Amino acid sequence: MQRATFVAGDWGTSRLRLFLCDAGGAVLDSIDGPGASEVRGAFPSTFDQLLSDWSRRNGALPTVLCGMVGSSFGWAPAPYLACPALPEQIADACVELRGPRVHIVPGLSCRNRLDAPDFMRGEETQILGALQLQPTLRRGRHLLCLPGTHAKWAVLEDAAVREFVTAPTGELFELLCSHSVLVSDNGIGTAISDEPAFNQGLAQFRRFPHAGLLHRLFECRSRRLNGELASDASASYLSGLLVANDVGGALQLLAPAGEMTSVQLIGDPQLTRLYTMALAAQGLESQAMDGAAASLAGLVHVHRLLSHEVAAHGT
Question: What letters, b where the CB count within 10 A reaches 16 and e where it falls short, cover 86-111?
């Protein structure tokens, strides 16, 4: 059995995932725990309790954490690193805790194409992992999409995160499903389960590509009222409209005039599948990568960079 060498952890808003890793980054064991929003104020004790068995068997291991653990309500604030940012710069900007046995990965910030401040936290580690899992991303210019509650579209240039833009696509979908009558008369959220309705939403976007999102949303209700859309298909239709709008807007901002022909997707397989369909509908190819695997690969890479830095200083 391989010897445990370090711990990697993705501590998001709603969930913590800890991985016990060997020197090569292979996972020996894993633990799930409460998210940062639940833990508030009790990060050290929660961390110690969850790692008690591992620590008893392996001693105090170095740990690399990413996600909301470094936010304003996290264990310790990890400031946002301004773009452009290379992997080595991200590792260098990690916040040290406990001597320093624990490192927290910083988020990233930029001034986006709309001349607005923009931020990401957690996705930067997934991008670092994507660079390890897909080496072709390390050279040239690439467009990445990380769909989710707050979808991120990032531009890579020779492994540096140059800029990005955020779209609250998932959050808007959840709000409209749960707190409006557009999708259902009782305001109860509905799952995306009707692929034809999703594709119908994509097609509607293509029919009127210059129409604003606000002038599209009521269709989710009006098409139900006149019988064009089944009541249980409204959520899928809404998702198609929102995802198509997200994809179309991001391409217009970051890849105008066909500058990009392919997009690297990183995220939950169900979400990346929807974005694959939306990108294909607009004539673009895409490759999908599991977000959890990318996050772990990013944490492993940060640990290696930090270990090399320690070795170089002879400590």
Answer: ebebbbebbbebeeeebbbbbbbbbe
Residue 162 falls within a domain, yes or no?
no
Q: Residue 315's pLDDT is what?
A: 46
Per-residue buried b or exposed e for 159-193, using 16+ beta carbons within 10 Å of the residue's own CB: bebebbbbbebbebbeebbeeeebbbeeeeebebe
Supply the pLDDT for residue 314.
52
Judging by DSSP bridges, how do beta strands 102-104 and 63-67 pair with one another?
Answer: parallel
pLDDT of residue 189: 52
Burial label, 234 (beta-carbon count in 10 A; 0-12, 13-18, 19+): buried
What is the C-alpha to C-alpha distance for residues 180 and 140, in angstroms, rounded to an integer?
44
Residue 9 domain-assigned? yes
- 67: domain CATH number is 3.30.420.300
Domain assignment present for residue 142? The answer is: no
Q: How far apart are CA 231 and CA 223, in angstroms?
A: 9
Structure tokens at 228: 């064009």
What is the arrangement of strands in the sheet containing 141-146, beginning at the earlier edge strand?
160-167, 151-157, 141-146, 262-267, 285-290
Q: How many helices (H) and strands (E) does the chain have?
A: 12, 14
Q: For residues 263 and 143, is the Cβ–Cβ distance under 8 A?
A: yes
Q: 8 lies in which domain range?
A: 4-134+302-312
Residue 213 lies in a domain: yes
SS3 for 29?
A: strand
Over residues 232-260, the pLDDT tens digits come to 899 999 999 999 999 999 999 999 877 78
Query: Residue 199: in which H helix or E strand, if any?
Result: helix 195-207
Spatial CA neighbour of 268 closest among 234, 237, 301, 295: 295
pLDDT digits (tens, 9 = 90+) for 82-93: 999 999 999 999
